[in-house]
């Protein structure tokens, strides 16, 4: 699927999302779940070819289970490394709860697969990822080539897309809005840039991205400071490797500490833990992103969804800041910049007033 087609799908969803925010009429609301559902709809469009209404209770239940799965991972990692802990009575590490939720998620995604799977003879019929997967599998089977492209592995890909393609993007948006409540001057500056470069008569498009330097800097600073996946994902040494004075044997688990780079004062200055988008703008007013900006990881195993995430973040946030002002529930009750850790570092649930601009 080309970038233009993806941008169109994202923009369609952004329109539904901003219309929903407008319907809140400025009442204090926690937008986390609806943001999660909206970003998931983009994955659904890619996977099965359609989106779900925000009122769909079955889809809401799936999103709640995915969210719970993400937050419940705070302690369960201990069980991965000390497997004898699984035999303790009770469910102190939430491992059993995670297993139940994962099975429920797999059952629901399998229903999507069964409902949408069809036999395809002509590759021109491909319109979703499931179609493309089955076409490729059929090609191999007809050629007598052994393949692991089976329903089980397709289901695993679907789960990976939902987990990695939903939670991270929606959490970054959630962080960005929280930062705007703490830095209203930044929010006003973003709106002013959008108004001068695009106006308010049409929604921002992906072609507008080079025009909105300050918004891009705000998004980049949000990713840097929030650092929602501080230990990236676990990797495995495929061979013995020397790292400085250390020798890492083949099979060693590697957990890269992205915070050690993204929050390093020698790189970002003494104000490394402050929200300052200007650090990504050079003296000529151009966006400047140093190589140490690595929220998606680095190297051959960099995040596969980086391009999609960047596109989503820009289109969602550009439309949100163009149309709305985000305010705390009251001037004296700005939500704290505190977080809970799970698969991602997410802000603690907070409420925000989404006020439509005139």
TrEMBL record:
Localisation per UniProt entry: Endoplasmic reticulum membrane; Microsome membrane
GO MF annotation list: heme binding; iron ion binding; oxidoreductase activity, acting on paired donors, with incorporation or reduction of molecular oxygen, reduced flavin or flavoprotein as one donor, and incorporation of one atom of oxygen
Domain of life: Eukaryota
Keyword Iron included in the entry's annotation: yes
Reported cofactor(s): heme
GO biological process: organic acid metabolic process; xenobiotic metabolic process
KW NAD (keyword) present: no
Membrane topology, from the record: Peripheral membrane protein
Residue ranges the record marks as coiled coil: none
Residue sites binding heme per the record: 303
InterPro entries: Cyt_P450, Cyt_P450_CS, Cyt_P450_E_grp-I, Cyt_P450_sf, Cytochrome_P450_fam2
Entry keyword set: Endoplasmic reticulum, Heme, Iron, Membrane, Metal-binding, Microsome, Monooxygenase, Oxidoreductase
Pfam families given in the database record: p450
Primary residence: endoplasmic reticulum
GO terms under cellular component: endoplasmic reticulum membrane
Sequence similarity: Belongs to the cytochrome P450 family.
Protein name, entry field: Cytochrome P450
Native organism: Candidula unifasciata
